[in-house]
Amino acid sequence: MANENTPLGANVPLAIRLAEPSELDTAERAPAETPPIVPTDADADVPSVTFSPSEGANWFFLQAAQHLSINSEVVELLKSPWRELHVEIPVHTEDGHLRVYSGFRVQHSGARGPYKGGVRFHPLADLDEVRALAALMTWKTSIIDIPFGGAKGGVQIDPRSVPTSELQQVTRGYLENIAHLLGVYRDVPAPDMGTDAQTMAWMMDSYGKRYGYAPGIVTGKPIAMGGSYGRTEATGRGVSLIVRDTLETMGRDPAKMRVAIQGFGNVGSYSAKYLSELGCPVVAVSDVRGGIHNADGLDIDAVIEHAARTGSVVEMPGTDPLPADEVRSADGALVASGLLGVDCDVLIPAALGEVINASNWENVQASIIIEAANHPVTPYADYQLSKRGTVVVPDIVANAGGVLVSYFEWTQNIQQHRWSLEQVNSELERMLCDAYTNVRKLAHDEGVALRTAAFMVGVERVVEALELRGLVPANGAHHED
Ligand code: NAD
Description:
The chain is of the alpha/beta class. The chain contains 14 helices and twelve strands. Helix 7 crosses helix 8. Nicotinamide-adenine-dinucleotide binds near residues 193, 265, 335 and 351. The site of nicotinamide-adenine-dinucleotide (NAD) has 27 residues, from helix 8 and strand 7.
């Protein structure tokens, strides 16, 4: 590990420095190598079962910081967000009342570039969760080596329960209240749970009214407003590439890998579509209303069509309903629908955070978990699953395809030049798969879990930027071994 006498960055893990040219852009793709490892560390500390989301995200960060010998002052700096904003959003309801919503924007680190992160509309969005998600964005953008920092936003609203006119008012009110923190080169929001391309169009329009035309102020916009081809499906496409490479390195045949996916929104539905195209039988999917199962594999195109028509995957003909899980959120709502414990090989949580936790990790039957949602596995569950030998590909790698194509969208807006879908998809594959290969190699070299290796890559690059900016003493971020 680097120490204070080492030239900047010269002695950090090799895999971080080596950006090997990708062979994926050639017609003949070289097979992915270096399977994920699940190290057994009998002396590992047992994480608390009562961590809040931000404590949980920091737990993973601290493991990596320890491996990298990052000194305690720098750890303190990175444990907390750089800036947090809580806003009130008053709206006039259609029946003549005043309703006030709460919203947040948290900027965790801008060391490597403008703050970047989605905005979540969910009734249970809260500041601590947004804090956790902002930090994860810092590490994610660093791992895939794009020039962004990390941020996240949230508004406490159930977007499905209000009329479109009210949703538009809330979106514009939120944007206006946080606009002074935003900028094409300062902070660039994007969609997340409960928000979509339409939300981004309203945000871009509100921002433009005050500051002038600036399509690069948000990503995930509609194509007609300067959005990028391939952005809507990018996270799910990226998840399927991560599954492909994981199975390839482990010598597993996709046709024999039964997949279950929790959440059938943007990420879940596109993951299902691409994985079924890859030849994986997708045996179960679920959404907020329940789950469906077919041991022979679901017809995913038909499920997508059914969900688009009825608003849910439930009651899809030719499928069995999944029994309810005992996993409930703070307000007592059902968080899972028997899907997490379904008999499958690859489990993909693609909905809420912390759904695999102390109360249910033992029910998980899959030997591989691909984290498409953010923070879906708590540190305690992660610790127990790792002891059991379950491969967990962490969110900060597995779902990074979304922010990667957001980066492509931002660069296209700045260049004022649109890329073709083929260019977007081939760059997505090249950069995401290279980043994942780097993480797997580092995990092998250091004998650590994929998550720890991923955090190590992300943290080391952020620390290097802090040193170069002079925000921490040059070469002083690491203590001597
Ligand atoms: P979305 O709003 O499009 O879809 C969310 C899905 O989860 C819906 O099908 C909803 O019914 C389901 N869901 C909600 N509550 C549920 C519950 N209690 N049980 C089962 N299912 C439930 O959201 P999305 O954009 O697909 O995001 C899903 C996850 O992926 C989130 O954790 C988000 O942070 C993460 N993510 C999204 C992106 C992106 O580009 N959209 C990128 C990276 C990570």
